[in-house]
Amino acid sequence: MARVVVVGAGLGGLAAAARLAAGGHTVTVLEQAPQVGGKLGWSSRDGHGFDTGPSLVTLPQVLEDLFAATGDPLDQVLPLQRLDPAVAYRFADGTTTSVPGRREEIADRLDADLGPGSGAQWTALLTRAEAMWRATEQPFLRSPLAGAATLAKLARQTADLRTIAPGRTLRGMGRQYLTDPRLRMLLDRYATYSGSDPRRAPAALLTVPWVEQAFGSWYVPGGLRRLPEAVAHRATERGAVIRTSAPVAEVLTAGGRASGVRLADGEVVPADVVVCNADAAALYGRLLPPSAPVRGARASLRRVTPSSSGLVLLLALRGRTPGLAHHTVLFPHDYDAEFDALFGRRGPKRPVADPTVYVSAPDDPATRPDDDSESWFVLVNAPRHEPGSGVDWTAPGLADAEADRVLAVLADRGLDVRDRVRWRVVRTPADLERETGSVGGSIYGTSSNGARAAFLRPANASPLPGLFLVGGSAHPGGGLPLVTLSAQIVAGLVGPA
């Protein structure tokens, strides 16, 4: 039996705590915020409620595995509601389409909305994506990685290597299979799921739309905040102790291994194993002492591109919007200009002038005070908070000016709600950094920019014995299913008591 300290009560940390406690370890979870959830946040006021992080569940089998391994099955704990359509899309030329909730209906929908042949092209692309998934699911997503050595091992399996196409980009794959620029936009958007640029992100990200469309998109009635609450309850059922408002200031070392943590108030919590659900850049840059034997991990982080962040508007609205989907994406005229702004190409990093706008508006009574109201979570991609070298999101007036811009863009694209706003809350990358500890407000830690970046994220087993990483900034990446898989990998590395 090991004494395990988990730093951070995001989904990855909580899932690791539940698995390790069920395995017989003594587990303490330390969370800086007053509540669990991490980026799976919730905000409420005057009867309006908002999920402030992820707004859908994909690959629900991963959650089913977690609950089955630690106690009662998922369907006895938390209901999931299938979304249909999963997403509605609006393009700058005025055309619209949507992704039906069931895979077999997608091709016909695309043919009807974007023209004959569109469905066949998308289907051919997803057939390639399915082959990529089969080649990568076990060796990459469900197993610990050993950096470039993992790719070298795969290179000996030439058929799988050709399928994954490690030297190709997501954009390049779209050009091979898709002729309609609107279909290419749909594909490019999946790079943003890891805060990346489709022109540099690896072709392996094709697996993201395949998973979403093969296994469906799901919502948790009452808000996705119920998911980390349920996992936290499961962890405590198995004996874990969860302490909120307990920020960790330092990961301690002794005898060449992790030995516990020091809290901001000076309290020391000893441990045999430390599992860090904090951002990997924060762990290696701030939480570990300079003398820790993690020089290689620190150097690797300096070589990668951090993921982008986001600017969020929480809109409490009067009235209802007819025909509004659960998720709506409104594309700009020039998608490349957005990625140029986010990553500092053709000029410095800057707020996006004509951004893609993502609206999450669940038709859920738990999110609104009455049936003549709506609560919208509105997100646009944004560069990180980097005062001095990039965008300073605390600059006076910047957040409100950008929020006004987003509302104007919505109006230009047919969703003018400016006269319906009861109140709004603006959340910037600086707010995300302060609230979650994610450096610069990077949503996913490191991006997948670069041919091998998706395969070379910070490893789950750190170079320091006894220290492990979970969460979106570590392998296998961001998003609810991958974060949950990171916890499964770490539990396997630690082993049973």
UniProtKB/TrEMBL annotation:
GO terms for molecular function: oxidoreductase activity. It comes from the Bacteria. Residues 11-314 form the Amine oxidase domain. PANTHER family: PHYTOENE DESATURASE. InterPro entries: Amino_oxidase, Carotenoid/retinoid_OxRdtase, FAD/NAD-bd_sf. Gene3D superfamilies: FAD/NAD(P)-binding domain. This is Phytoene desaturase. The gene is crtI. It comes from Modestobacter muralis. GO terms for biological process: carotenoid biosynthetic process. Pathway: Carotenoid biosynthesis.
